[in-house]
Amino acid sequence: MTRIALLAIAAAIASPAAAQTLPAGLVTPVADDVAALRDAALKDDIAWDIVEGLTTEIGPRLAGTEAEARARAWGAAKLKALGFQNVRIETYQMPVWVRGEERAEVISPFPQPLRLTALGNSGATPAAGLTAPIAYFPTFGDLARAPDGSLKGKIAFVSHAMEPTQDGSSYGAYGVARFVGPAVAAKKGAAAIVIRSIGTDRGRGPHAGVTNFPDGVAPIPAAALSVADAENLERMVKRGKPVTLKLVLTPRQTGTHESGNVIAEVPGSDPDAGIVLVGGHLDSWDLGTGAIDDASGVAITAAAAKRIMAAGQPRRTIRVVWFGAEEVGGFGGEAYAKAHGDERHAAAAESDFGADRIWRFETNLPGSATAVGDRLQAALAPLGIVRGTGIAGDGADVGPMMAKGVAAIDLNQSGLRYFDWHHTPEDTLDRVDPEQLRQNVAAWTTMLAVVANAPEEIGAVTPRK
Amino acid sequence: MTRIALLAIAAAIASPAAAQTLPAGLVTPVADDVAALRDAALKDDIAWDIVEGLTTEIGPRLAGTEAEARARAWGAAKLKALGFQNVRIETYQMPVWVRGEERAEVISPFPQPLRLTALGNSGATPAAGLTAPIAYFPTFGDLARAPDGSLKGKIAFVSHAMEPTQDGSSYGAYGVARFVGPAVAAKKGAAAIVIRSIGTDRGRGPHAGVTNFPDGVAPIPAAALSVADAENLERMVKRGKPVTLKLVLTPRQTGTHESGNVIAEVPGSDPDAGIVLVGGHLDSWDLGTGAIDDASGVAITAAAAKRIMAAGQPRRTIRVVWFGAEEVGGFGGEAYAKAHGDERHAAAAESDFGADRIWRFETNLPGSATAVGDRLQAALAPLGIVRGTGIAGDGADVGPMMAKGVAAIDLNQSGLRYFDWHHTPEDTLDRVDPEQLRQNVAAWTTMLAVVANAPEEIGAVTPRK
């Protein structure tokens, strides 16, 4: 809540007409059935069962690989076993990049190995490696301001100072070093680029992730050093002597392969009321087992939908989608929108930020559904969840549907630990706290109970920019 | 302090003759010069400079490799620059085992890669790998009780339940799975063995470390899975289906190579009073940069000795030894005892347990030096350090001297975090807390100020068993 909203409440309480001027969400009653579903979900075991199963029985599942195909089969079987209707796999084709050998070492002045991982879409070094001096940039801005041609024959090394933020906003602010740093370095003539991992840990596990080279810019070798290795390299740079690195990175593009979305439904009683679309992504990066990113999201949304299904038929159809190929470019979300964009959707929501406690929710609902937002505020408050003042619209996979004007609901997990392990080998089951996972299921169950059964019309909205 | 000792104090305080019956260390005054040295050391920067330098400018330094040789040259230069006397390198020859390729994957029922590292002295699989079913043992005891011959054609998988202990005692209790588990499995006919890392973390970094095969037992491939991978494998085992692993481990013995100890001195005024021997080990495992194990120990002991030197000549010579080849079998400590065993040593103390806060000290002093122990108790108390009731004698490197009857002093760091990172890729500078490192330097400075200047005779003791 903003300071201004807080002052408004304080003023309202002090006035004789307090009851009328308080925000409606603070005084809206919570329906007994919603409260009962919410509280029962705090004992949920369904989500843990899915996260544990997917990480143990499948493990890493890079988009477009046979591991992702096994994950789809596993997911369809699991969703059927849970009793969902219309369970199916919808496939599509996509380009697939795969990791090769990856090694780095300081050649001089202080020879020692460094730990890194190639960024998705990275180019390759010669098989025997590439040896070159580094050009150090403390921030992305420093790289962006380097003169054209000044990096010829050099390995750009870009650092940054990412710190944890509850809303995850530091990912966007510092992630630019990964998202576009390699393209910028390539345009300036760099032979390769290494970045400090986009992460908030101090460990040895490098953070993977895609980067993109626009048409006409030939990909250069691009990799993320672990944070500990990047800090070590920075200390070397600060000794003042030239630093030479050797990189061996042999990833490659393997052409077009099959990926797919796994879809399951809780059919609603009123087909005209529109679908409530929820889900997360089934693919993961290849270094960890994808527990927080995003076995948790598929698990939380399926568990919540299952709990609504068990309580009786909802008004609206709830469609659970376990999207494919999110990490490498959102191919699953695009394929879904292409296949289902003409169906009437009432609202969309995605869980793709781990499983730590949900601390905030935001909405983008039409005026006809203002009361839905107020009921959400009241029903979520006992879980420690505040109403934010922003406009909802998170989610790479449901983004293409939101762009078409589908109403949006965001349930925001805390990001304070998320980037310690995001895209690293450390994204494993151990990082999921069962109690916080249950709070997530309770919040999603509450949201679905309110939204899927809302008697109000939920029509199109203006999407968040 | 034991409960009995506590009751004794309580009883003493209640009695009219309280002053006479309180433990002497509680009421012994602290000399002003000792207190001043102790308190000044809480602002020490020397130790950090050494840890930062060794991890940045050398990095990993496996015993017997050229990296360890560079570390010796670096160490000798650093100790000379600090003003120590008689700085020299004393070399010796030792057998050197080096890591090769190391990969593992579950073949069935749930194909996915696992992270592991070969144990020192491990045998090798064929270059193409070894594929076999696993035989699961929840504890070392379960392995030890398996019938002879029952492991033929199998990969033994030994788990355990190590938890952190402040005194580090869980390392001995659970470490047996690494120390002798491979030999036990080999004797029972196992094709290979993987153990859950001897560690208290839940991460993906496997914990290296030596194992030993007695004469007549052919080494088998032996590796430690990361804790997260071991837990994943245990979950697979608990599904009830047979689990088949493929291991590729190609380490090898490379013959005899040179290693060495780096020695430096603060000459004392009384050559007959005996040497005070302090130090840590310069070599490290190869996966991390050896910050807590044991750049910290060489740094703490050298910084403390330097502070005593700067305060004026001590009575006893302080000899600082940065031992080589501790990790792989204590070759440096043995070489030292062989070369210097006949010189008179008054006391020995080693720092090889990271750099977290020292919480306890213990001694093994002769009766003539009882008052030295009491003065230590009084002088260390303001640093939050208690006097333990055990007999001192820690330290693989000074162990051979203690075995000859040299008096011992142990300054015990807290082990509550140590085994999260011990022997893993995560043993990097980030794990050293500068404030806790300073508390270590203060404790060691205090110890040296008391012991090196003690007017009492410090002669031989009965070594701890």
UniProtKB/TrEMBL annotation, chains A, B:
One GO MF term: carboxypeptidase activity
A Gene Ontology term for the protein's cellular component: lysosome
Residues in the signal sequence: 1-19
Keywords: Carboxypeptidase, Endoplasmic reticulum, Glycoprotein, Golgi apparatus, Hydrolase, Lysosome, Metal-binding, Metalloprotease, Protease, Secreted, Signal, Zinc, Zymogen
Compartments, as annotated in UniProt: Endoplasmic reticulum; Golgi apparatus; Lysosome; Secreted
Residue span, Peptidase M28 domain: 261-444
Record keyword Methyltransferase present: no
Protein origin, superkingdom: Bacteria
One example of a Gene Ontology biological process annotation: proteolysis
Subunit details: Homodimer. The monomeric form is inactive while the homodimer is active.
This protein's name: Carboxypeptidase Q
Provenance organism: Hephaestia caeni
Taxonomic classification: Bacteria, Pseudomonadati, Pseudomonadota, Alphaproteobacteria, Sphingomonadales
